[in-house]
Amino acid sequence: MNKDTTTIFGFWVYLMTDFVLFASLFSVFAVLRSGTFGGPSGVDIFSLPFVFIETCLLLTSSFTAGLSLIAARYGKKIHVVLSLIVTALLGLAFVAMEVSEFAKLALEGNDWTRSGFLSSYFALVGTHGLHIVLGLIWMIALIVAILRKGLTRSNTRKLVLLSLFWHFLDLIWIFIFTIVYLFGVI
Amino acid sequence: MDWSLLFGKLSWGLLPENAVAWGGATTMVVIGLGLIGLVAYFKAWGPLWRNWLTSLDPKRIGVMYIVVALIMFVRGAADAVLMRIQQATSVGSAHGIVTASHFQEIFSAHGSIMIFFVAMGIMFGLINLIVPLQIGARDVAFPFLNSLSFWLFVAGALIINLSLILGDFSTAGWLSYPPLSELAYSPTVGVDYWLWSLQISGIGSLLSGINFLVTILKMRCKGMSLMKMPMFSWTVLGSMWLVAVSFPILTVSLALLTLDRTFGMHFFTAGGGNMMMYVNLIWAWGHPEVYVLVLPAFGIFSEVVPVFSGKKLAGYASMVYSVIAIVFLSFIVWLHHFFTMGAGADVNAFFGIMTAVIAIPTGVKMFNWIFTMYHGRIRFFTPMMWYMGFVVLFTLGGVTGVVLAEPVADYQLHNGLFLVAHFHTMIVSGVLFGYFAGLTYWFPKIFGFKLDEKWGRRAFWNWLIGFILAFGPLYVLGFMGATRRLDHYTDPSWQPLFIIAGIGAAIIVLGFACQLIQLFVSIKNRHQALDTTGDPWNGRTLEWSIPSPAPAYNFAILPMVESRDEYWQLKAHNEKDVAIQATGKTIDIRREYEDITMPRNTAAGFAIGAATFFFGFGFVWHIWWLVIVSVIAGTAFLIMRTFDEDTEYIIRAGEVEANERRLRDRFITMQNV
Does residue A141 fall inside a structural domain? Predict the structure, then answer.
């Protein structure tokens, strides 16, 4: 029994369950997007240039995560670690931008208690952000493990899983960018 | 000093208020302390910890699931008895034994416990015990994840029981519809207990679902194509697929209600929210959940009926396709739980028709089981008795379900006792009778001896008669206009029927007592009922080809499968070889043995489960430091475990061979006695 293929297949199944989770949140957002309750709607609070930078950060980090996988295939430990560090920094910048966006909204009085629309916005985008944070914790742990033990079979397997996870979050973000932000300002 | 930073909303005033609640709380504490004391008295903590609590062996995890589920069953059944006493006595000027709000807590707890901690518990127990054996595997795909799922299940069970002692439980029913479950109308911690208990155990179920889905798809032995897989494994595959797709929706529904209650969001409250969205979400999970529970029970009957009829399963392919049809259809019927929402005639018509359509694949299964019996040599052991009870009751329940599927009729029967009678018929006869049949059937494989037949029959007859008496009157009362969840009613003509229902519940309790006696008697007389052959029922699937109780590594040599009824074929082809006849090809000392790699026991699942318990407890009582500490601790345990490389041990080929020789010798000695 090949443990690698079983684990990777299992992780794909997990990702599909996470897809269902996000699908539920998207449908909640679709139902509540008009429930502004006298508060702002998307066009009042979203800034597309800001979100565009966030998107660029995340897409670039997906690219560098891909680079780390290529480096792992050639067994270049230091390249793997470096590209993971770049990925983590880009991810961190994304989280920082998201937190600052949330804080700005809250300070303007448009926090999650303001309306059903804002509740669903914070829940959907926040759940994605939380996934990114979990991915970052995992990434840091993996960097430490690779530095200590090298590109062992189990570390390489984890790298494959992590990059699957990271690409998956990228994909979810594309949906968020389109459905929440782009449709929001139209 | 502000103590709320330290203790959140906890205070002394939260201990139980009335006699019945005190009784419940005291009973739980006594049972808990009693169990701890018993273990300490026998100095069993060490062995218990080493062999069970930290075990990654699915057979042991399965047994632990079932033990927890049985304890929870006692709690859920006590709730049921209280409800029956209340409704039998609370008429006119009499007001029964409990207050209205306490009654609401009782029915909310009864439903949540029976579904999440009894039915799900026994189901995952049986799946753990049997699926790896049946597909010819030594383990599940992710052994540690399996242990983690179990401990999350236990954490959820602890949280729901804690509500007996500290604070109160939800009064909002087993699915906690808003707006009643929102903070404005349920300001105490009751709904929070409900939310966190279900959230934690639900995530455990989701992880288990992924685990067994991968196990069945990836770890079947050589030659076992999907169309040669035993029916129980097929139904588990369908059920786990449903878990993987539906449980994330539960996670989201519960999380959104938590956000509403804890952080003042507006998902389901005025302020831009929509309370019917909750009802849609929860039933988009809830309806598939019904099939999550009943599919494995169908699988059990598909194993039991052929074996005890001495015939192969009729219509195997149609059984497989009906499972697939049920899996698909179960996702497009959810709206029938609330036709009265007012979605309009077209929407109601669609869901009404789909609901009637889902009865067709279920009917296919019914006919196939009956065709299997036709011209068979039927042996009426207890599992077959449960099956016979199931066929009659489940058909009745199915027909009342088709009545409810008509939106026009549903408007009359909605939220009435007719509905309550209907779904109890489905769940008790379908799910519970099925699991009882499975437990009796597979018991010798796990423990090495059979359960007592006589007490098994007594249990069955008590359950059957008790069930008919307890729920027959509810159908009638439903037509008379009785709604569900009544703590008091004024029409005295209802009372005789409620009293009959109460008598029925008492007979069911006798049935459960018979099962406890059965267990006790069987353990006492186990030397007379030892399963020395490993194949007590003349079984047809792989689990019967190895000795009982199954060794830790299941199969000394991984089997090769050529047909659906592999073990029957094997026995038919080797009529003269007495060892193969009884214990199959795995005990064959001429074979070459290999080293076997098995997962090492670990306390990580227990530790993460404990952290999650404190996380949930902290959230319920708003003890934020505890929440933060448990998040950090849980994450640290998880990272430590993930990066632990020393997680396996090797059983040497010599050891395996010695063990197999010993089992063979034991068998031959027994045969000569």
Answer: yes
